[in-house]
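Annex B, item 7. Sequence and structure tokens for protein A, then protein B.
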Amino acid sequence: MAEDLENAARAAAAALQAGRVTAADCTTLGWYRAVSGDHAAAAALFERALQLNPREVEAMVGLAGLHRAAGRLRDAALRCDAAIAAAPGYADAWLERAYVMAAGGVMDEAKRCYGEVLARAPAHPAAHAGLAAIAARDGEAEAGRRHAQAALAADPANTSAIAALAAIELEAGSAQTARDLIEPALARMAAPSPERMELLHTLGEACHRLRDHAAAYAAYARAKQDFAAVHAATFAGRPAHRDFIAGVTEGLAAMDCTAWPPVEKNDGPPHLFVLGYPRSGNTLLENVLASLPGTAAIEEMPTLREADLAFLAEPGGLARFATLDEAALGPYRTAYWQRAAQALSRDPAGTALVDMDPLKSIRLPLIARLFPAAKVLLVRRDPRDVVWSCFRTSFALSNAAMDFTTLEGAARHYDALMRLTDIALAKLPLAVHEVPYHRMVQDFDATTQGICAFIGMAWTEDLRRFDRTAKTRGVSTASARQVRRGLYDGTRQWEPYAEWLEPVMPILAPWIEKLGYAS
């Protein structure tokens, strides 16, 4: 198939050089450039194809794939929608839309789009593999096996189907079977790719279950190397995300917020921000809170985007933000509630709103000023567990995810956000309740009763059934499998990997001491 594309691209290039420019030739050459990794040239060719023929659906789908690879999911979805409008029967447009929805964590819509592909091409291996991956993630073993086997019947080398089957075997307790599935497939893959990255991560999990910790570390490290290589062009020239956090910290340290109003009392349903750091237990707490009657929860959505762009992305933005009057703040509050309503598909008025996003800790200055009646639940976990988990976890593409491709990068990112959080807690008018992860999993009732007292909501036994809530709501974060399993103690997972964490211990030691995890 690669040889066919190369031959077609050679013919298309010759046609373009001879001045016989057609949309089809531009599209063919664009796909060749995309597969070769030259995304800028591919995008230019796809755009040229659409100038020649605005209904060139293959070019629309090609652009959607490039946008998805760059993390521009909204642009990718719009391109898919345009392609589907132009050619509703074009299965690849539905397939790309499924990929976009899955990348954004909108799994119900991803499943629907994969179904649309199969309605048009019942044996389509990629659609079956996509459904297998979602089923494996959701603990639906029978459906996962069925779709994975259908994918492999059409394409015996389909790595996504192999990874889904391996994940199902892992969940069933058959780690060696999972390893045996993955290793031959990896042997056939010479270059970094999202597919190899997925298999390497699953291999790491299998080796971890088998207590082969050296092999597990090696697999996780290779998966992260692949992630960095696959996304290198997207992040070329960008500062590390930890440097962005350090810039916010510098702005906050210099900011005068003495005239800001104090924390306000709220007699209505509470407005809650669940913050902390990735892999600290935020998704667990979100689903616990979502089990309370009268709550609505948002999971890692950019609800503060307008304020972000105005005050965090611009030099001197926080200094300007500190001086705004109520009238000037109004549009940013309105934009937040509009985004919240969009995320929930309904108006959140009259409900207790839970906005969960660990990296919104960066936005604590915005939260304190825009929502003085909001309450912050700050989840804390042993820094070694947090940093190790960020390194071993397969994250969707984000600015922070690039910092997690090495243990040192993850440790320095953690240090940067903890420094910002410390200054925010010291300077800002905030109602904050710290939630230690280890207490939540080891003394669930007492910890959640304390949380309910803080937020002003009655504790009920429904909180213990958060796993049912997670299954009903769906979970789009990397914690989906853990939360679906119910309460379990995930503390001290770093210990088998202590030798690999040793080089970053000087970075983490102050936080281990400060947060009380030194003993």
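Protein B:
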Amino acid sequence: MSNGNLDPELADLLSGVDDDIKTTKEVEPGVPASSGPPLTSQVPVKLSSDKAFLKKVIEGESNEYTQRMIEQLDKAINTPIKEDRTIFRQKLIPTYWNFVNQMVINMTSKSSTEKTYCVRFGIVDITLLTPNQVQLIKSIPMNYSSPDYPFYYMDEWLKNVSAGNIKPSMVDEVAAKKSDTSAVQEKLDRKMDSKSAELRIFKNRAAERALIEKGLQSEVNILLNHSTLPEYENASDVYTQEQKNIMSSIMDDMRKLKNADNGMVSSLRELRSIDMEIRELQGKTVDGPVGGMDERIITNEFNSLRQMAKMCVGPRGNHFPILISDYAPASLEYVNTKEQVIGVIQKIEERDAGIFIREFKGQQNRIVPYIILVTAYGEQGICWEPFDMRQRATSRGRIAVPLYPRDPMYSLLCALGDLRWQVAKEKAAYRWMEEGVTGKYFDYFTENKLRGNIKDEFIKDYILWITQEWNATQKLHRDVRMIFWRYMPFPQSKKDELKNRGFFYNDLYKKDMNRAMSDGY
């Protein structure tokens, strides 16, 4: 295909591609076509402008999709007839994804920031955006991170999977071809998860002990404070009745301290045992392959991200993956940046405090899932995996949310509603239609002869619960309100407020009191 209609400089870059692609077969999804080192950390450089940006994106990308993408992009943007532009944009979708798939395999620490912008934000040609839109994207911090929230852009996610910091997503092709080294690595990952969970338990018990010690210190101070008897040369008085009562309380606290310390001793013993196993497993991985994950795993992970983006958009959404002025957001308010997502997550967690809570060895642990910000004009987030099926109690789940949603709050609520459903369903296993929130919701769904996908209906009701019922706007069926009130409760302070905002809330509040009195809650 001729490059005569393209920009001369771009034509020069593409001139060597034609020969390469003549002998290259069509690549099936999940099968790499080019080789190169895995992804590593990106070195920030100055962002190019105008046509230099596109040159930086395609520079060194000698794969069959490079020229095809440039030509289809030109037609998708510049064809005068709207219907024809639509056709070319549809053809461009798989071409773009295949181009990026090959590009991420070869990305290294020396790759340009323009390539990172392509993977992270979907920008191929910066001239397709207005100056204001360019400034908006450039205002997003490139290296923002928070220790409490493991959130990643697509390029960051792939780098961490490549480096072995994050396990690859569940893909059959990868699981079918495990090497001895990968089996050892999997055991090591599980032990690291176990150590993290046990360490949380140890810290929780230490905090519990500190709380008891603080109370004990206050009681001892009261016990040691004696009044004097002036009539007997200011001799110390006997213990008061309050002090005698405190003696009994001190004895109870001493027993609690002993139990807390026994728990800490048990956790410390378990931690040291796990550390010993970790050292043994690390010794077995020393002779393993150097350089992190192979191409196949990176490619499969990229295809998982592509599927996540497709699910976030939905069957009738806008699947065009490239950022152009027609679709670009008008402000950061409509971009799921890390900062935006953290703010929204915090608001949701204020209303659903148990969303990230899981119990392990009698301790409640807050485990925030991985959230991947996928390049898509999507409306809804999805839960890809509620937790690692081999480490249910302590592993992080995986959630994907679109980078360019119409409503960030809605996209996150969809994802967290999905997480709520999947965690509860997996924990109940084959009894999911009988136990817990899924069992109660299934009863409501069948008794009312509702149709459609039960999980989708649950998510819709979850969104109403968090957004409407929180403000005492009754939008849910009374049975659903009762289920959520008990299994996904608002904070007690909110319940105290809602009891005065309507008969239904007051009735639910009274039922809480009755259950508490009968120890049946």
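Comment on protein B: Residues 8-168 form one domain.
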